[in-house]
Design a protein that fits this description.
The chain contains three helices and two strands. A two-stranded antiparallel ribbon has the order 1-2. The longest helix has 26 residues.
């Protein structure tokens, strides 16, 4: 199973004639941390061919669009998105004005 690590547990027994530590594998998975899962997925993404990476990006964007379309807060989210787009356009315009060279 991906994302799990199986442990070997050491059990202390107190049975007469069988005292001491004995190891046994118990089917109790220990799940990886969120950061380990993200690192694993990032490595898998980086190793994928460019076409597959673009397919994954398009899929994520399409999923976001579906969530946006079904959201009860759709109007608010669209207005916020438009506000952010306008702020980005203004920032780019200001950058161009500051750094444009006149010849």
């Amino acid at each position: 199973m991906a994302g799990t690590v199986w442990f070997v547990y050491f059990l202390q027994t107190f049975e007469p004639g069988r005292e001491g530590c004995h190891s046994m594998i118990i089917g109790v998975p220990r799940f990886l941390s969120d950061s380990a899962v993200v690192a694993e997925e990032a490595a898998r993404f980086r190793s994928a061919p460019p076409e597959e990476r673009m397919r994954a990006i398009r899929s994520a964007l399409a999923g976001g669009a579906i969530l946006l379309a079904r959201s009860p807060k759709r109007a608010h989210l669209e207005a916020e998105h438009e506000r952010q787009e306008q702020a980005a356009r203004e920032a780019i315009s200001q950058f161009v004005v500051r750094h444009a060279q006149t010849r």
